[in-house]
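Recall the central idea of this unit: under ordinary conditions, the amino acid sequence of a chain determines the structure it adopts. In this exercise we apply that idea directly, starting from the sequence alone.
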Amino acid sequence: MQNRIHNPNLPAVRRLEAVGFRAWPAASVQYDGSWQVRLTAGHPSKRLNCVVPLDPSDYRDIDIRTEKAARRFEAYGRALLFRETPLAPPQLIDFLRRHGWERFEEVIVMTADLSTIEMPDTMHHLPSHDVGRFVDASLKVDAADPALKPALAEIVSSIKPPSGLFSIEEPQTGPVAAALCVQDNDLAGIMSLAVAADRQRQGLGVEILSSALRWARTRGARTAWLQVTAANEPALALYARLGFGEVYRYAYWRRNKPE
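Accordingly, the structure predicted from this sequence is:
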């Protein structure tokens, strides 16, 4: 069952989508009308490999444009994904539903006012400028494939707005938490935040998030934003305690595999 707030603020959605594209840049970005086609050969991130419709009134030739996008994705060795935000035309969503596409992974986009947010008194960590070290830490904390290092390093290096690369490392175990904060004028996006599986629920998430938000606030950011899957209840509880509130939701659509 779809669960989203009623009448989302579309100008706010457009702005957060725009800063999100800059904060997590795809290697290839093309447009078909107002549909943004994002592809990145070296990294499987769904945000980097999807079609994002950006105008509710742009729903002409849906079937032709969908097949055109599918061929482009196939050339990259990827299955076509659509990302549904409040900017997606309802006619497109009806088309996908009628043709048996599957909606999955609902994500909540949240914001917080950095002038009023109350951050706990935790240890303060300064950001690093060492992309390689941050990528190593991020992959280890996420238990991700080390082979993704070149692609992830390229993505992080290609972020144009100022970025804060945060990690918490311990002498015996190495990295135990990592976070990436991107400051785009008055907006600060938490693009990734992870804590090692065996160190969760020990305050490390709050510690590294607070460090990132303090860094962004001292640089003039007034609003923080982040994305979290709707099923991640511990993270949602943490963000709510810090004062984050929902602005809108998005989800992905994929073709159902034939039986």
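Helices lie at 10-23, 62-75, 90-98, 131-142, 149-157, 204-218, 233-242.
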